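Feature request, filed as a ticket because there's no other form

It would be nice if the structure record came with a short human-readable summary line next to the tokens. Right now we just get the raw output. Example of a typical job, pasted below so the devs can see what we mean:
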Amino acid sequence: MNKELMMGNDAIGRGLIEAGCQVAAAYPGTPSTEILQSVINRKDQAVSPLHLEWSVNEKIAFEVALAASYTGKRSVAVMKQVGLNVAADPFMRTAYLGVKGGMLTVVADDPGPHSSQNEQDTRLFCLQGRVPVLDPASPEQAKAMIKPAYQLSEKYEMNIVLRPTTRVCHSRQSVELKEPVQLDRSSAFKPDTGRWCATPAFLPALHRTLNEKLEKVAKEPEWQPKKKEGNNSQPRIALVASGIAYANLVDLLDELGLSNTIDLYQVLMPYPLSPDFIANLKENYDRLLILEETYPVIELQLGHPGAVGKQSGAVPKEGELSPDILYRTLATFLELDPPADLPAKGRGQRPSLCPGCPHRAAFYSIKKCFPEGIFPSDIGCYTLGMNLDAVHTVHCMGACISQGAGFHQAYKQDGGKIPTVVVTIGDSTFFHAGIPALINAVLQDARIIVVILDNSTTAMTGGQPVPTMGFTAGGRKSKIVAIEPLVKASGVEFIESCDPYNHMRFEELLKKADAHTRSEEGGVAVLISRHGCLMTPAVRKAQDAPPVIITDQCLGCGLCVDTFECPALSMDKENEVAVVDPDRCHGCGTCIQVCPAQAIVEEENK
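Raw output as currently delivered:
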């Protein structure tokens, strides 16, 4: 048997190849990013032609995969839980219209959350959208679910959601490798206007068909909850769990010596829940403990009078169900001795922009030029501009421009002085959701400055390509889509670009942009902050990076450490001076322009 140690996302990627997926589209976002990257890395293992793409956003990724499924090919759309919000429109309609070739939507949830705007539970989204959802407990199980999930999709012509969570995506396990299936499918789209173009007149019948399908799906033998039977020492009591909570629970029961003493059920498909399973629990158990992340999706469907879980407050209503939380919950339910209190965890060092990050220079200049300004920003590593007090709002992808416009309109109503509004948005986020908001701001005459932080990559998630780079997910050369023509086509008349390392020029353009927004004939101003991400090896290699030192002119003011917050700089508290860590310094030289005492200099000029 051929096995390989894999991260969960890598296992899912390999599972997609083994199941004959031919079209895979995604937008990167932790914890889902590595899934498509795994398919890219393993594309040579596929036995059929394979199209791979980092789509501009999740809605587009879903629609690309959906159309491919209409032709009979197996496809997948990959995203994180908040990405499903972006794809919600086609996702909800697809439940009614269905698919042809198998289609999976892999949505990675982030209980905690570790790197998301919320703890959204995709299972609850699927319950609302009437879409079957699978909840793997481990990397091995996530991979094993993919092929039968495609078969389920094709049997009922339905989109199926696979919902791994952060701990499944990023844990590692030895998984069995199987030969990829050879499907030999040719594209064969058959127009059916009553289905693919369904107007409201067709929808009641399609909704009725959907309900009938869900009833059948709920009874599919392969997806029934799996039971680990107890020894009847605790009769008429059972534990019901799904996802990573189940895997942690199995380990915990073993650790406590309680394995096989109590009936334990793993729910593989939280929605639609098997009616036979619901009836069985009501008939055979007086008390149930329901363990699931993050909302009571299973608990709501069970309607069991003796069930305790998130609704009853027996299980925390937010955060991960970590082993220690499971221990306390289980101890209360089974009347065991409670575990000892864990020592309080201290907070680590707060995250910071990387040494030499061009965004740091941009944020510093923005705050310096407009100390009383309002600074909406967006989702990405540049969110950390909040450390420099140059980010005041972070909501969701693309919201910064719309919020900036909203701030302007609200202050404009008062008739007094309008504060300068400087919006910051990354290049990938601009393509994802910023363009419609920019057009709207122009149409509504929102006098704001939009700074597009162009570092020529999707840095937050590991450096996926953006449209300005000229290549696709698989490395194929593509057309370059430049930012400036898009901005101009959106109706913006003030468009400038500048390397933020050049503080003087960047600040000059910021002031010029502000003047444009306040002039009678002005409007939205766009300044493109353009410098490659230093996490890109080619950028570091090409950059002139002389090391810096701190001379005895240092006043110990701490501005370079506390306000500019470069991780390569720190304070020597004993001598009350700043010091440079040469191992962390990238030699960007931006700190030289920041130091009020001119105590930071290039080493050769000391």
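Something like this underneath would help us a lot:
The chain has a mean pLDDT of 92.
The longest helix spans residues 139-156.
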